[in-house]
Amino acid sequence: MDRIDHLPQPAHHFENFAQQEHASHLGMWLFLTSEVLLFGALFGLYTGYRLEYPEDFARAVHHNDIVIGTINTLVLITSSFSAAWAVHAARRGWRRRVLGSLALTVLLGLVFLGLKSVEYLDHFSHGIYPGAHYRFAELPSAGANRFFSMYYCLTGLHALHVVAGLSALLVLAVLAARGRYTPRRHTALELGVLYWHLVDVIWIFVWPLMYLQK
Question: What's domain 38-212's architecture?
Answer without folding.
Answer: Up-down Bundle (1.20)
